[in-house]
């Protein structure tokens, strides 16, 4: 059973986390195909896979991604992107992606992906974006028709068009994103190998996006530290930080006692906190890639709770559902177990995410109301 289809409960209660309304901000399209779909699409194009059978292939992705290195982690995407080179493949993966979000109780999701990595069969950048949007809309229709998620649930999904930070197509991809802003694209991102590829390399793209009042999130503070986060904010004008977990490096713990931890924030972390810049944290992924190695190798050592207790706008995300064999409900369950969170804490995380979506203010307020009502009824 996939993590999306499995039901998760808040520890020592009968409250179904899976049934709660949730927001997904950081979720990669090529990190979420179903193993069975990869097998079928690979067979159609004659692609040899690293493992035979649905269960074995899913295990291969999870075990290979659990490498302690972002670079090694990213190699697993060679397989998923290979089966996402046709209009049919892209649309199917996007459709099922939305179905799985709905199964997990997500009411709004932003799915990020890099169009430049899906041109292998001759499709244009505009054509691949249209193909993904076609799949998203079909998945939304499926959810509304029933069978995916809580009865009567309505899900919305927007695309975050992503440029690969090690390539030189940033401006071209930014123009693509803006071109499709009325056809499903809600924001822009840069992703891929972080260390050695600063956001400043794409300054022209970020200038263009700012001139067009187009929202940006930037992967930063995952495989690189504070300078990468500074670049995301200064060069990228990022409204959110993709991961951003290593912002905790700018927090000095002065002393601790049985009840309190006394800290000093650096100027960067203070800025992020004061401006309420959302952190798109992905606990399981952060463990797999070694992003939290400075703090430990167990979820209980993740600086998530430190950031939360200090008032940062933390959000909970999957990053790549296939590679981490996870869902937002599972991530919330893991965090609740690790830090003894209750229902009110989980609601804070969802309200933080709703406020950070790249939607108009009125739509964000509507999401906030849906979340409040759903948690009240839990």
Automatic annotation (TrEMBL):
EC number: 3.5.4.4
Molecular functions (GO terms): adenosine deaminase activity; metal ion binding
Domain Adenosine deaminase: 21-372
Keyword Hydrolase: yes
UniProt GO cellular component terms: cytosol
Gene3D superfamilies named among the record's database cross-references: Metal-dependent hydrolases
The entry's keywords: Hydrolase, Metal-binding, Zinc
Sequence similarity: Belongs to the metallo-dependent hydrolases superfamily. Adenosine and AMP deaminases family.
Protein name: adenosine deaminase
Organism: Subtercola lobariae
């Amino acid at each position: 059973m996939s993590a999306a289809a499995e039901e998760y409960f808040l520890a020592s209660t009968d409250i179904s986390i899976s049934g709660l309304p949730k927001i997904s901000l950081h979720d990669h399209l090529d990190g979420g195909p179903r193993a069975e779909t990869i097998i079928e699409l690979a067979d159609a194009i004659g692609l040899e896979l690293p493992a035979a059978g649905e269960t074995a292939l899913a295990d291969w992705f999870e075990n290979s991604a659990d490498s302690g290195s972002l670079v090694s982690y990213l190699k697993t995407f060679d397989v998923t992107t290979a089966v996402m080179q046709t209009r049919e493949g892209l649309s199917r993966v996007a459709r099922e992606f939305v179905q799985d979000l709905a199964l997990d109780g997500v009411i709004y999701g932003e799915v990020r992906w890099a169009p430049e990595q899906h041109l292998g069969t001759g499709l244009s950048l505009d054509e691949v974006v249209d193909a993904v949007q076609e799949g998203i809309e079909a998945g939304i229709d499926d959810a509304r028709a029933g069978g995916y998620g809580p009865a009567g649930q309505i899900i919305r999904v927007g695309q975050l068009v992503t440029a690969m930070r090690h390539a030189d197509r940033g401006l071209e991809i930014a123009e693509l994103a803006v071109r499709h802003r009325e056809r499903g694209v809600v924001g822009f991102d840069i992703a891929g190998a972080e260390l050695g590829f600063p956001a400043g390399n794409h300054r022209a793209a970020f200038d263009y996006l700012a001139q067009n009042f187009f929202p940006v999130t930037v992967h930063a503070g995952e495989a690189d530290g504070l300078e990468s986060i500074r670049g995301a904010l200064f060069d990228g004008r990022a409204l959110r930080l993709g991961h951003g977990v290593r912002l905790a490096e700018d927090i000095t713990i002065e002393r601790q006692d049985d009840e309190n931890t006394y800290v000093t924030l650096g100027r960067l972390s203070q800025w992020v906190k004061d401006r309420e810049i959302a952190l798109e944290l992905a606990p399981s992924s952060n463990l797999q890639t070694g992003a939290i190695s400075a703090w430990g190798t167990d979820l209980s050592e993740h600086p998530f709770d430190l950031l939360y207790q200090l008032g940062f706008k933390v959000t909970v995300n999957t990053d790549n559902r296939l590679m981490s064999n996870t869902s937002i409900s599972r991530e919330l369950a893991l965090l609740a177990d690790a830090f003894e969170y209750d229902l009110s804490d989980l609601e804070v995380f969802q309200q933080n995410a709703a406020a950070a979506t790249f939607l108009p203010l009125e739509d964000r307020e509507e999401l906030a109301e849906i979340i409040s009502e759903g948690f009240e009824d839990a």
